[in-house]
Amino acid sequence: MLSTLEKAITSNGLVAAFALVGFIILISGFISRKLTFGRMHGSAIAILIGLALAYWGGIYSGGQKGLADVSLFAGIGLMGGAMMRDFAIVATAFEVRPDEARKAGLIGIVSLLLGTLVPFVVGAALAYYFGYRDAVSMTTIGAGAVTYIVGPVTGAAIGASSDVMALSIATGVVKAIMVMIGTPIVAKFLGLRTPRSAMVFGGLAGTVSGVSAGLAATDRRLVPYGALVATFHTGLGCFLGPSVLYFVTKAIMA
Amino acid sequence: MIIYGTALLAVCHLLGIFIGDLLGKIIGVQTNVGGVGIAMMLLIFARMFMEPRGLMPKPTEAGVTFWAALYIPVVVAMAAQQNVVAALRGGHVAILAAFGAVVSCACIIALINRMEPKSDVDPFADDTEMPEAAAVDIKPTA
């Protein structure tokens, strides 16, 4: 009977994922109300549970895709994959008020540029401090501090070694996780209240996964504004990383 | 028909990704440039065009808002497939570089947002579309 149940779940992966995530959100709503008295947003707890399950899945399967590598939960990979994520993000545009978005136009671009430059400088400087003193490694790790996609794309373009690439991806993933967890905690300090502030956040915090999860856990209505800007972040980083940022780093290190 | 809304969303999504890929090719980077953002803007424009013309009845709208409401569950699934093990094993370089980047960006965000002109108008005041999205503030009444 157990194997029949297992077969039912594995051959209906996406459906099983819907059920599992629904259950996670049910539990986190309960924790939010009963244990934190509404102080911690249910979505934030759900995301934390998701990350914890991803850690368990990674240890259990030895794979790179967290819970999605455990065959019973493979459907999570489909549900939380890039296709569904982007589809749902695009749908949130329905809640955007065009005039609010227009008001933040210029400051959005400024924060996008700062959001690429600042993490890059910090990442590259720390790489230098820890002994990665060639321009290629510094650029790759710095790019990883922008997002975990910009890191490997830049590294591949300028010929970084695979351990530096792995380090650069790890930097980006750690950053995304920090943004996911940290945003609702420091939302007041960041001044996250308005569409404009969400767009500034989207440009500076970068990583789409971090921004979208962080804002979701703070205030669901801010998501589309942050996501609208953040989706340009990776593209801009992949553009600047292997070109301008690499050349400047090389010139400074020479 | 609910499928009209979902189909509209799908068309905007595909067009946006397509344009983003083209942009990436033109600039010469091996990645999509703002495809999702472009798709979002297409959807905003589509709505601005269709709504006043009566082309956006409630069922059509529901075909989009259903997916918007699924957003948080999808994000939870996304969190569940992050490579958390590798992130924690990346050692102190990865953690410190990420931490430094996050903290310095957080300070800049706080700085810029403090410069935002204060207004007493709640930007979401008449936002009744997604009632479940309302922030729940639990404050002592005294």
TrEMBL record, chain A:
<dbReference type="GO" id="GO:0044668">
    <property type="term" value="F:sodium:malonate symporter activity"/>
</dbReference>
<dbReference type="InterPro" id="IPR004691">
    <property type="entry name" value="Mal/Na_symporter_MadM"/>
</dbReference>
<feature type="domain" description="Malonate/sodium symporter MadM subunit N-terminal">
    <location>
        <begin position="6"/>
        <end position="253"/>
    </location>
</feature>
<keyword id="KW-0812">Transmembrane</keyword>
<feature type="transmembrane region" description="Helical">
    <location>
        <begin position="12"/>
        <end position="31"/>
    </location>
</feature>
<keyword id="KW-0472">Membrane</keyword>
<feature type="transmembrane region" description="Helical">
    <location>
        <begin position="198"/>
        <end position="217"/>
    </location>
</feature>
<feature type="transmembrane region" description="Helical">
    <location>
        <begin position="106"/>
        <end position="130"/>
    </location>
</feature>
<feature type="transmembrane region" description="Helical">
    <location>
        <begin position="164"/>
        <end position="186"/>
    </location>
</feature>
<feature type="transmembrane region" description="Helical">
    <location>
        <begin position="223"/>
        <end position="248"/>
    </location>
</feature>
<feature type="transmembrane region" description="Helical">
    <location>
        <begin position="43"/>
        <end position="60"/>
    </location>
</feature>
<feature type="transmembrane region" description="Helical">
    <location>
        <begin position="72"/>
        <end position="94"/>
    </location>
</feature>
<dbReference type="InterPro" id="IPR018402">
    <property type="entry name" value="Mal/Na_symporter_MadM_N"/>
</dbReference>
<protein>
    <submittedName>
        <fullName>Malonate transporter, MadM subunit</fullName>
    </submittedName>
</protein>
<dbReference type="Pfam" id="PF03818">
    <property type="entry name" value="MadM"/>
</dbReference>
<keyword id="KW-1133">Transmembrane helix</keyword>
UniProtKB/TrEMBL annotation, chain B:
<dbReference type="Pfam" id="PF03817">
    <property type="entry name" value="MadL"/>
</dbReference>
<keyword id="KW-1133">Transmembrane helix</keyword>
<dbReference type="GO" id="GO:0016020">
    <property type="term" value="C:membrane"/>
</dbReference>
<protein>
    <submittedName>
        <fullName>Malonate transporter, MadL subunit</fullName>
    </submittedName>
</protein>
<feature type="transmembrane region" description="Helical">
    <location>
        <begin position="7"/>
        <end position="27"/>
    </location>
</feature>
<feature type="transmembrane region" description="Helical">
    <location>
        <begin position="62"/>
        <end position="80"/>
    </location>
</feature>
<keyword id="KW-0812">Transmembrane</keyword>
<feature type="transmembrane region" description="Helical">
    <location>
        <begin position="92"/>
        <end position="112"/>
    </location>
</feature>
<feature type="transmembrane region" description="Helical">
    <location>
        <begin position="33"/>
        <end position="50"/>
    </location>
</feature>
<dbReference type="InterPro" id="IPR004690">
    <property type="entry name" value="Maln_transptMadL"/>
</dbReference>
<keyword id="KW-0472">Membrane</keyword>
